[in-house]
Every structure is written in C-alpha cells, then in structure tokens.
Design goal:
The protein is of the alpha+beta class and about 550 residues long. Helix content is about 35%, strand content about 20%. Strands 1, 2, 3, 5, 9, 10 and 11 form a seven-stranded mixed sheet that branches. Strands 14-15-13-12-18-19-20 form a seven-stranded mixed sheet, sandwiched between helices. It is globular and about 60 Å long. The model has no long low-confidence stretch (mean pLDDT about 95).
Length: about 550
C-alpha cells in the first residue's frame, strides 16, 4: 500500500516591496520559499501607491517557484493562507483597477499603508470625538483606511464615481483566489473602524460616522460585506483558474486573510497559552515595527491602537503599538551618509559586524553620547502624532566610517527605546510585559537583537522558523483546511522558540540613563515646537515658521 502523502500548506505574504510564498509542512518547517518584487509609485510627498495587477502577478510567480522547489508534489497542498500590508485596493464594479493616484493612471489603484496623504482627514475624524475612537487609541491615524477614503472622495471625485469595490489588500488576495468578497475580522477591525464586539450603541460598521463625514453611501458603493468574517476559518475554495495557473488542485481551502504584522504575531505567539499572554509582546520588526499585545479583557491604552476584539485570536482583545519607520530609518541613515553607498549590497550586515566589534572593544556604552528620537515619519505610538519629526543629539564635524557607525548605533538604540516607550504605556494599563517575541528582518541581526534586549530590559525570544510572518500565515491555511481545529492546536504543533536572549547586566545603568535622556528629549522637543509655533508668550515672530 502506498504511503499517505504528508499534507502541505501554502503561505503567501505581500509586503511593502515584494510578494513571498512559503511551503510548510504541518510541523511548521518551511520547505521552500520564493519572492518577487513589485513597484512603489511616489507621485507626491507622502503619497505611496501600488499596482494590484502587478502584485497578483508577483504572487503567482513566487508561488510557482516555491512549489517547484519544495520537494513534494504540489497536489499535496491542502490549504492556502494570505497576509498583506494594510493597504487599500480600489476597483470598479467589475473588479477592474481604478486609480487612487493624482497621476490619474488606473495602474496605481492601491494606496500603500505608509501613504500619509490623509493627515488632515485623520485629524478631522479625531475631532469628531466619535465613540469608535476609544478603540483606536483615541486618535485616528492617516495609515487607516477611513481617512484615505475621505481623501479620495474629496480630491479624486472622478475616480470616486467609478469605484465599485474597495478591499484591504489581504482581502483582495482572498477575493482573487476564491472569487468571494470577505472582510476579514483582522483587516476591518484594525484599519476600517469596524467594531467586532457587541458594542453599544452600534456594533459593526460605524455608519453614523460615515454620514457625518459625507461618506454615507460607502457600504453600498464599495460593496462592503455586512459583517466581518472571523479568523481561522475557510473563506472559500481555490478557483479553477487560479489552481490551474499555480499548479494546485481546485477547491482546496483558502483561509480568511490577515494583516502581515498580525500574521507575524500569530507566528510567534501561536503556541502561548492564555495566562502567559499577559507578559508577552509580539514584535514584528522590519521596514516598520508593530507591537502586538493580547488580553482577555478590553484595555484602552492612549496612543495605542485598539483594543480590537477578535482581530488576532478569537475571543481575545488586541492592543497594537507601532513605529512607522524603523528599518526604513536605518536605510535612511546609510543613504544620507557619504560612506553609505560604499558598503555594498549587504550593508546592514556590514554595519552590524563593525558595531559588534567596536562594542567588544569599547564596551556596552559605545556611542551613548549620541541620542536619536526616531520619529522621522511621525510617532504612531504611544504619542499618536504623525506630525512629529526626528531629533539627533551629539553629532560632530566628522564624515568617517566611525561617525556613520555611531549614528547608526544611536538610531538603532533610539528605535529600541521607542519600543520601550510603547511597553511602558501598555504596562501602565494592565499588562506586565517582560518578554519580546521577535520576528522580521531585525531578528536576523545579532546587533539589533542585543539592543532590543538591553535597551528594553526584556528577554527576546527568537522563533525556530525565522520567518514568523509566513509561519503565521501557514497557521491560517492549516485551520482553514481543518488540519488543526484552532489556532492554539496549530500553534502548539507549528510554533517553536529557537533561542532566548536576556538583557546584559553590564548595560543596565547605561540604558537606564539613556532611556531617561530619551524621555527628556521627548519633552524638550515639545517645548521647542511650542516656541516655533508661537504657543509660548514673549516670543516675537514665532508662529511664522512653516
């Protein structure tokens, strides 16, 4: 008798610049992976756009390559999961792309998550003081979909008249794979001001807020489903056309989609039993940082998104902190220095090697006289101020490699202090976080792992499977296919810790002082801004600067 083939799971992640596919076994081992890049269009300051057709083509290329190198027949795949950035896809009633760009080109029909064009609209929504704001940290972010939709209606009226379907990017991928429109409990609860719990007076879509904003026809025009679809279930079966294109069996299970950072949280916290979650923080660290904390009860934390019900684990409340530019900020530091272009393709690894060597020579106090507030793209959490900008203290007239290294190190420490600031906010409101489950690009850097542990005072746990985002998405595929009955069962089988990095005792006093200086600089920045904007009396001419 022939042996029964081991089932496989296909996980697909669409990030900021590439689509990735991973093939997993049911024990959580990634057998193969592949990626394909796609474009970002930046037609104006704070505008960032994608092409959904190009994204879907990139997904297909990555899938076919991963399946071709996994060592098993593609017919063994029993489930497919999708995650993506929280970007907004605009289509007409027939599903064709419609522009979201000031260029007017229908190719650019996706407003990227990092697009901050709707800062004024976000502030306007915040000023309504609507009860839904209690579930987004009391401040609407320009990275959420409602202010972006409001901007599109006001600034692109011709395109708005053509819109007939709007989807978060993860839900778009599920729609392309199954032909069925779903609003994931993850995407719409976290990014569309949808209340996924029995809220009073109005659960679900906040249509009274839409009316106040002049968006009263939103649900009908954009075909928004009446209710969100819970996570962990089957969204539908893979269509014959997609199955043929990818070399899979038609009808296999496709899971409900998820935001990429949330998939990463599932990929590192999936095996954590309920009582332990209160002390754990998922840190998904790459281009930006996302911080995920789970609680059995609602905890409203000012400046931190949430509490969101059922947006990560069913029946659990999620608080989501974030830093809008972290890996992107380290890129910027290298791009801005005269020597940054000389470091080659693996420039971050070269910087990490240099800095680990210098730290071994000098000690953990290396470059502690340089301080960075890392809010170069605003502060998402816990200040919820997209208008803020970064600050650097301690620069010299020096353009040597050592000067670049000191600034790079101080920026990485500043990013870690920003994470500590978020942890402080969460712990003030009931959490007791002392362990970070780290995944993403930063988990691959021994330097950044060490700095997160030392600067936050928390142990850092690294997963066995380095790619926590794809692993979390594989859990979506596993539960959709019925391989496991729920996320905890899937997590216990598939999510494992490889290494635990504890804070260095030798660095405790250094970072206690450094973090105190960081917090003082936050206050001083506000004092400087008050002077520049004429808020302080006795400052003639202030308030004229722009």
């Amino acid at each position: 008798m022939d042996a029964v083939a081991a089932p496989l799971l296909l996980a697909i992640d669409v990030g900021s610049t590439s689509a990735r596919a991973g093939v997993f076994d049911t024990a959580g081992h990634m057998l193969a992976s592949a990626s394909r890049v796609f474009d970002i269009n930046r037609p104006a300051h704070n505008h960032a756009e994608h092409d959904s057709t190009q994204i879907w083509a990139a997904v297909g290329m990555a899938v076919r390559q991963a399946l071709g190198t996994c060592g098993q027949p593609s017919s063994d795949v029993v489930g497919v999961g999708f995650d993506a950035t929280c970007s907004l896809v605009l289509l007409d009633a027939q599903g064709a792309p419609v522009t979201a760009s000031t260029t007017g080109d229908d190719r650019w029909n996706v407003v990227m998550w990092a697009d901050h064009r709707a800062v004024a609209e976000a502030a306007e929504i915040t000023a309504t003081d609507h009860p839904v704001l209690e579930f987004v940290g009391n401040t609407m972010s320009p990275e959420m979909e409602l202010p972006k939709l409001l901007w599109l209606r006001r600034h692109l009226p011709a395109a708005w008249a053509r819109y007939g379907l709007a989807l978060d990017l993860a839900d778009f991928l599920v729609w392309r794979a199954t032909g069925q429109v779903h609003a994931s409990a993850c995407t719409v609860t976290c990014k569309w001001a949808y209340l996924n719990h029995p809220a009073q007076p109005s659960p679900g879509w906040q249509e009274d807020l839409w009316l106040r904003l002049g968006l009263g026809d939103l649900r009908e025009q954009l075909r928004l489903p009446a209710q969100a679809t819970p996570l962990g279930g089957r969204a539908g079966g893979l269509t014959e056309a997609v199955a043929s294109d990818w070399g899979l069996l038609p009808g296999i299970a496709v899971g409900v989609g998820m935001i990429d950072a949330h998939a990463g949280a599932l990929g590192v916290l999936g095996a954590t039993a309920g009582p332990e979650l209160d002390s754990r923080l998922a840190l998904i660290a790459g281009t930006s940082n996302c911080h995920m904390a789970l609680s059995p009860q609602a905890r409203a934390v000012p400046g931190v998104w949430g509490p969101y019900f059922g947006a990560l684990l069913p029946q659990w409340w999620l608080n989501e902190g974030g830093q809008s530019a972290t890996g992107a900020l380290l890129d910027h530091v290298l791009d801005s220095h005269v020597l940054g272009a000389t470091l080659g393709e693996d420039r971050h690894a070269r910087m990490a090697d240099y800095l680990l060597r210098r730290r071994a020579e000098v000690g953990p106090g290396y470059a502690s006289d340089v301080l960075v507030l890392p809010d170069f793209h605003g502060n998402r959490s816990p200040l919820a101020r997209p208008d803020l900008r970064g600050v650097v203290h301690g620069l010299e007239l020096d353009s040597s490699m050592e000067s670049l290294a000191r600034l790079y190190h101080a920026t990485a420490v500043g990013i870690a202090y920003g994470t500590r600031h978020i942890i402080d906010a969460l712990n003030t409101y009931g959490y007791r976080i002392n362990q970070l489950h780290l995944t993403g690009g930063h988990a691959k850097s021994p330097l950044l792992v060490r700095l997160y542990a030392d600067a936050t005072g928390c142990a850092v746990l690294l997963p066995r499977e380095a790619d926590g985002v794809l692993l979390g998405t594989a859990l979506l595929a596993a539960t959709a296919a019925g391989v496991y009955p729920d996320f905890l069962a899937a997590g216990l089988a598939m999510v494992h810790t490889r290494e635990r990095v504890v804070p260095s005792r030798a660095s405790f006093d250094i970072h206690a002082c450094g973090y105190a200086a960081f917090r003082r600089m936050l206050v001083q920045r506000e004092e400087v801004l008050a002077l520049l904007h004429g808020v302080v009396d006795g400052c003639p001419g202030a308030g004229t600067l722009h």
